[in-house]
Amino acid sequence: MRRWVAGAIAIAASAVAFAIAAVPGEAKLVRSFCHPTGDYCVGVFKRAGAVKLDITTPSLTDSYGLCARRLVNGTRECHHFRFRRKPGGLRESRVDFQTRFGGPPSGRYCASWRYGGRKLHTLCFGYKRQI
User: Fold this and answer.
1) Burial (Cβ within 10 Å: 0-12, 13-18, ≥19) of residue 86
2) d(CA 88, CA 57)
3) Contact at 8 Å (CB) between 67 and 76?
4) 47 to 4, 53, 106, 109, 124: CA distances (angstroms)
């Protein structure tokens, strides 16, 4: 059992490393999470003030849902996105928060990734609207 858990953690760590390396330029990792089985990793990145919401996976296919909820008033907006194939059998999707969620006001938000009718994970972050 311990060998399997150690292998799963190594896979998850590799996926995070790949996701971080795949973000161009001087991107800063704000928050991230990798599922213990290595099925997926999600992350919030900032690059030149722009917030990017990322998911990388070796096993999920087709499309997924992404919802953003503003903490101050609970308003929520959801969209579906498709994965792009990457080298090494991985699939990835990177969403520009401001562009895809209609230039929301500055504040604290939580992004929730969904797949196959279930919530994968939620990450919260601060956002400052770019003019």
Assistant:
1) middle
2) 11
3) yes
4) 36, 11, 16, 17, 17
The model's pTM: 0.79
- Architecture category of domain 2-127 in CATH: Sandwich (2.60)
Strand intervals (E) in 1-131: 28-34, 41-47, 50-57, 63-70, 76-82, 84-85, 91-96, 107-115, 118-127
Q: In the chain, where are the structural domains located? A: 2-127
Q: Sign of dihedral through CA atoms 75, 40, 54, 34?
A: positive
β-partners of residue 85 are: 91
Q: Mean pLDDT by 10-residue block, N- to C-terminus, for the chain (131 residues)?
A: 41 48 66 95 91 96 96 94 94 95 90 96 91 72
Tokens of 24: 């161009």
- DSSP helix/strand/coil, 24: coil
